[in-house]
Amino acid sequence: MQKESLKSKAYNLIKSKIVNCEYAPNSFLNETMLMEEIGSSRTPIREALSKLEQENLVTILPKKGVMVSDLSLNEINMIFETRILIEPYILSHYGQFVPSDILSSMKETFDLKNLSHISAHEIYTRDDQFHKLLVDSSKNTYFMRAMDNIYNQSYRLRVLTGNRQQERILNSNNEHVNIIELMLEKKFDQASEALKVHLEKSREASFSNFINNY
Predict the structure, then answer these.
(1) What is the four-CA torsion angle of 139, 140, 145, 148, rounded to 10 degrees?
(2) Which of these, 8, 114, 179, 190, has the minimum number of CB atoms within 10 Å of its CB?
(3) 85 Cβ partners below 8 Å, 6+ apart?
(4) What is the CA radius of gyration of the chain?
(5) In angstroms, rounded to a whole number, what is the distance separating the alpha carbons of residues 210 and 214?
(6) Rounded CA separation 206/203 (Å)
């Protein structure tokens, strides 16, 4: 039990620091430092790192160490290529299972004219909640697991580039409102197309932010 709790503690702490870019992309993690920070032996650390490697957050290099996974233009493209293929498919096939009252509530959170009083973190939390709601509607554990890994990488990208383009945030909110309205009208194929366009625009913005800020 103690071993498992230390493994969970190690996993959660290391993952949080990677996702929030406290451990920067391409940096090496020192096992001894992690052991001291978490207060555990080497075994729970290695078990946690093994799990994080399965989630593409670290790469274990034999005889070299453990490196935090890279974020590059190619990575960004792969992230959005996956999202553009999977998320619209899920919406068109499973969007009908998202309760209307939850959609209506989410529409209110996005239907904003003035974002000055809302933090970027709160905006991105709402964004993630909406996309995860769509994915979870599929009840497909393979979709859910794959997309959870993708969303971790997306969050790293936001933190790394300081993605706070006010115009893009406002446009993104409006795109979410449009998608939700189409879903409430039971126009799931049209909502799926709107989601695809939304993700393509997000990819363009992510490319721009990465090039200009990193």
Answers:
(1) -50
(2) 114
(3) none
(4) 19
(5) 5
(6) 5
